Amino acid sequence: MRGKTQNLIWNREAETMPPQEKRQIQLQRLQQAVKHAYENVPFYRRSFEARNLTPEDIKSLQDLERFPFTVKTDLRDNYPFALFATPMKNIVRLHASSGTTGKPIVGAYTRADLDLWSEVMARAMAAAGITEKDIVHNAYGYGLFTGGMGFHYGAEKIGATVVPVAGGFTKRQVMLWQDFQPTVLACTPSFALVLAETAAEMGINPPKELQLRVGMFGAEPWTEQMRREIENSLGLESFNHYGLTELIGPGVSSECIYHNGMHIQDDHFLPEIIDPETGETLPPGQSGELVFTSLTKEAFPVIRYRTRDITSLDPEPCPCGRTTARMNQITGRSDDMLIIRGVNVFPSQIEAVILNHKDVVPQYMIVVDRVRNLDQIEIQVEAVDDLYQRGEQKLQEVSDQLQRDLIQTLGISARVVIVPPRSIARSEGKAKRVLDRRNLA
Ligand SMILES: [Zn+2]
What we know:
9-stranded mixed sheet, Rossmann fold, alpha/beta, binds zinc ion, about 25% strand, GMP Synthetase, Chain A, domain 3
């Protein structure tokens, strides 16, 4: 499946701009963005003034390092509208992220912001080889969540045909695959697996019977193993993408056909990598927390927003011709890092270990508990279809092997429980993989 997708660039001028010119444009836009936030959002004015900073202090891109970070709690404290920089009469759309705790994060868009969003989504989809000839089965959630609308407008801008199917009704979705023969699937990777499973249950062999050739997956961390599983079961080439409501939604960065990291639309979103402990800016290549400043957004600008996502940046040019900085796959969220008996571990690292094993499938749940003041971790992972028929002893062997692998690669000693196929709750949006009971007592 790899290597069959054509190398397309939607906005050649912006995406292949020489680095020197790019930095100049970024600086001009950064000066305007900081001024816009300072003049129109009391929160930014106060936080800049507390450090004796004004927009005039941005004389180079490096000067941004002197400015304070914006964190998620700042957004919650200013819920719902206090961080908006334009009057409501100029705002034409609101979105919100599903806050698992407390109030959601609210995103606001002027007409120009919506145009920007369509533009960066068109860039992302063209980078995956999508053209006006494609039929896009969009199974991202529509509504407050940004996924559905983001892909919808990007695909329409390219001129592709959009099927706005959203989540749920998995059998009907597979029926539509058979009838409409879409060439592109857009959804979360966990939902792609659910759809693949449903197709198999319905006796359909997607690589043979369907036309799907491109998958646009993101909105949650996923591993290379999960990618192979999805690609093999659906017969498509998958493209990772990244975004967040705080910035715009999907469209912040995405893979090209070389799959060597996600190209950041850095003429609109300026990335930095910082040490999550000290806040110090790290040089390219080093892994740390991703921070973004929006350069052109009107309604809801963000200055140095800490995403909590852990990754690294690669500024080297890509064989595709783009000169935009690339970010590597998110290896975890600084706030969903688990600390198990003093060992730092991300759920995605656990996933990578268990999915290396051919007798289990990428459906799992990590349960963390504290028993007699000791952290205990149990990983429930689903067996492949015929594992249970191979007997009790085989089940034990698989779980023993996984336990050994976890100790050897991550240094964590976990109880691994193999559970029957399809026994772990499926999600239509972002999968919930961790149940931390330690704070529930
Ligand atoms: Zn590239």
